[in-house]
Amino acid sequence: MLKKLINWYQKKLVNTAHLMKKEHLNIKNHIVKINGDKFYLAKAMVTDIPEMVDIERDVYDGKAPWTDEAFLPELKPRLDRFYLLLRQEDELVAFIGSSLNDKQGDCHISNVAVKPEYQERGLGYFLIAKIIKKARQLNYKTVSLEVRISNVKAQRLYSDLGFKQVGVKKDYYDGDHEDAVDMVLDLSLYETIPNNFGI
């Protein structure tokens, strides 16, 4: 009898946690204002993949680090991935992807891309801030990411949001084998970070 009660209670807890996570990751598509410009914020779907790959080609000199095949499992309905995108006048202009690790309490940003003509307008900052907010709602401990060692501009953006360099991964990137800087945001310290903009 006690074993049945314990099983029932554990199942109830798992189902409750599952429902809460689903609720936190549910985002209604809506218009947002970023530095005076209006954009349409939505969760990314499988049908968005061709445009996402196109943005990567624009950003990475004609070479998309992620293929359609790589994006496909990421965008199928699942609770361990969270992708957002921004559109302006029906054109996809930016997106962000993350994987969610409940056991480690880490939200790992796997991909951020902003069309070159829309860069320096706060879109990347906005999307990263959204991911941080979701990680905080899920009571995660950290948000992590890798960034090319040569991408000083992106490293500066991440530092502005409170990320700290914790290491370097040698020969991390396919193709050119460039090193990656490992960066982590400790969410337990987030309230003390200056300019956290209420994330």
Automatic annotation (TrEMBL):
GO MF, one annotated term = protein-N-terminal-alanine acetyltransferase activity
Q: Which residues form the N-acetyltransferase domain?
A: 37-188
Among InterPro entries, the record links this protein to: AcTrfase_RimI/Ard1, Acyl_CoA_acyltransferase, GNAT_dom, YpeA/RimI_acetyltransf
UniProt keywords (A-Z) are:
Acyltransferase, Cytoplasm, Ribonucleoprotein, Ribosomal protein, Transferase
E.C. numbers: 2.3.1.266
Q: What class of enzyme is it?
A: transferase
Q: Write down the Pfam families for this protein, in alphabetical order.
A: Acetyltransf_1
Say yes or no: keyword Transferase present. yes
Its name, as the record gives it, is Ribosomal protein S18-alanine N-acetyltransferase
The UniProt record lists the keyword Cytoplasm: yes
Give the GO cellular component terms, alphabetically: ribosome
Read off the NCBIfam families from this record. rimI
Family label: Belongs to the acetyltransferase family. RimI subfamily.
